[in-house]
Specification:
By secondary structure, the protein is of the alpha/beta class. 38% of the residues lie in helices and 20% in strands. It has four domains: 2-197, Dna Ligase, domain 1 (2-Layer Sandwich); 201-348, ATP-grasp fold, B domain (D-amino Acid Aminotransferase, Chain A, domain 1), CATH 3.30.470; 357-481, Glucose Oxidase, domain 1, CATH 3.50.30.10; 486-808, TIM Barrel (Alpha-Beta Barrel), CATH 3.20.20.
Length: 809
Amino acid sequence: MKKKQSKSYIKWFHEIGIEDLEIVGGKNASLGEMTRNLQKKKVPIPPGFAITSHAYQYVLEKHGAFEKLKEIFRDFNSKDSQALEQVGQKARALIQGCEFPSDLEEAILSAYHQLSASFQTQDTDVAVRSSATAEDLPNASFAGQQETYLNISGDKSLLEACKKCFVSLFTNRAIAYRTENHIDHIKTYLSVGIQKMIRSDQASSGVIFTLDTETGFPNVVFITGSYGLGESVVQGLVNPDEFNVFKPTLKEGYKSLINKVVGNKATQIIYAKEPNATKTIETPLQDQQKFCITDDEALQLAKWAIDVEDHYSKKHGKWTPMDLEWAKDGQTGKMYIVQARPETVQSRKNPNIIEEYKLAEKGTILTTGKSVGNKIGQGKARVIQDIKDAKQFQAGEILITDMTDPDWVPIMRIASAIVTNRGGRTSHAAIVSRELGLPCIVGTNNATEVIKTNTPITVDCSEGEKGIIYEKLLKFDVKKIDIRKVPRPKTNIMINIGYPDEAFALSFLPNDGVGLAREEFIITDSIRIHPLALVNFDQVKDPETRKQIEEITVGYSDKKQFFIDKLAMGVSLIAAAFYPRDVILRFSDFKTNEYFNLIGGKYFEPHEENPMIGWRGASRYYNEKYQDGFALECKAIKKAREEFGLKNLKVMIPVCRTIEEGKKVLQTMKKNGLVRGKKGLEVYVMCEIPSNVILADRFCEIFDGFSIGSNDLTQMTLGVDRDSSLVSDIFDERNEAVKRMVKHVIDVARKHKRKIGICGDAPSTYPEFAKYLVDCKINSISLSPDSAMKTRLVIAKHEKAKKSKKMLS
């Protein structure tokens, strides 16, 4: 009889699977599922066994604890924090007083001795993990609700840890979580997992998700890691290293580690000298500054994670993203998957729903300007006249300032809206706000005078061209749209994007790819250093600048490689987000004054009276004064395409004034490993200068396509400085001269069978201009993300009307 009972109390991992959740809980069921089914895929799982929920029930029944628990939870008010504390204390005390029957102890220790013998030790070190029968469900993960005990060895310590796990079923947080998810406290049972410890205290460990945790983007494996035992990462005790691996091209054999960010990993948990204990120590500075695993190890973890995800998806008959834990053994150098559960946050969200804003009431108007985007933002105003006062800015406030430049981006990223005195819809504030998805109003002339700090305001960009700042927080509505019901126009609708960290979220918008990826946004945000200051670091003389560069490039003895890696990864995040659709990357289009503002830029940039029409774009790339910097851009793109496998990445040359310049740039690219036509590489040219239009047939001979930059083309055609508020009324893309330019280049491109699109702001701002482009038979229209849905509907409706009119005629 005892033998029969003992067998029901213990199940080895290889004996159980996901169907045994009621017996061994979610955590153990998953460990068994992987042990049984993924060994052939060579996914390594540390061995162990489960103390089943029968054991938990046996203990409580023997002591009459179930009836006592019912009494404890009778009339329990979950909204009363004091009641929660009292109920939790009583329940834990009750379970703590329930001694294990001798036959259960014998069964547990027998299995433990068998596990120890397999490692040729008497008392092997194990992790003792709680595994509730109500955890890791599709709608309630229960991760972290019960306790885990690490570095446990010896009979007495093991039994004590198992008892603590039983007790932890009634932690306050577990009680609250079950109540919130309408799960019966009495009918939830606990299993305990006993798993061989991996000596990650001498190496590293962390967590893996098989999707992007912030957006739910499905095509990446997201890995976090730190030194020491995994609790540091699981409990959020450290800022870990982060790795993104792109699934589709990894499966094709590419080393698609498309992004990695070093965390400070300030502390780590290791074994203490005394048995059955751990301790937290500080991580040495030199270890904080380097990654806790190699690139190859990150790629291996990603492959295992995909194998686990594929298995669970097949098992459930639908895509099942996973949340896993991993550990590296410092004694053997081997890595393991130590836990897995279905992801339960992003996978439950509906990616097909987007939002549309509309003000529900009117109020006192403080000032007006030109609107950017179509959202409504609210918060307390914060007037900042000088970037040196940026530390005053608090997350969620509305930035009120004269104008912005790249130095302002850190506070713009945490703002709820942006308002400036100066600038138009192509100013820095406008472009960055679009990329960040923020409501923005530019060109108010007097915002910093009429709006006072701490005033509650509403920034309304939902009413078309005119942006309005209202006093007080006004009510507004947000309409949700199911994008599956949005019509697909014949004209390709693409997206303009700058910041890589926005790419995964934007990929859910209905789109045909990216018509303009702005390289300079990546440089100012992620690199910040002038490329020539990295190529010629010895020419950077002042100690402060050298120190700054050393700090930013820590871990890189070859500073050029820092630029290549950072740019390659920034570009790859965008290309991966929209894969396999086209992503057209524009090479850096800084003006000299903007290059000058990069760290170390003053050593390599001349002064120009009018940088807007000076040394920018193509003229830099082949010039001996900058070609070494351009070489780094080429190598970064080569890495993204050939090492990461992102062949959907195309490149585009801005401000290419002559045919001769175009040929020189192509030759310079070839010298650096980027050959037009080789491995599917397409090279586009911006059409933003009258010479591009006039000689369009000649440009067709050396490039694969055009993208019309309506901002610069309008400026050059009308002779208007787009940054000057004095002549801003003249700047209008709808001017007949500009429209004729646009029509002509489209006609020529189509005649020569070259692709042609537009990436300027005109179709995003003016619906009538978008219709004009459709009438001209443009191939694609690339829009700012905030206007993509609205303009898509305009275009679809216009195309339908044209088709109906044609049929009637």
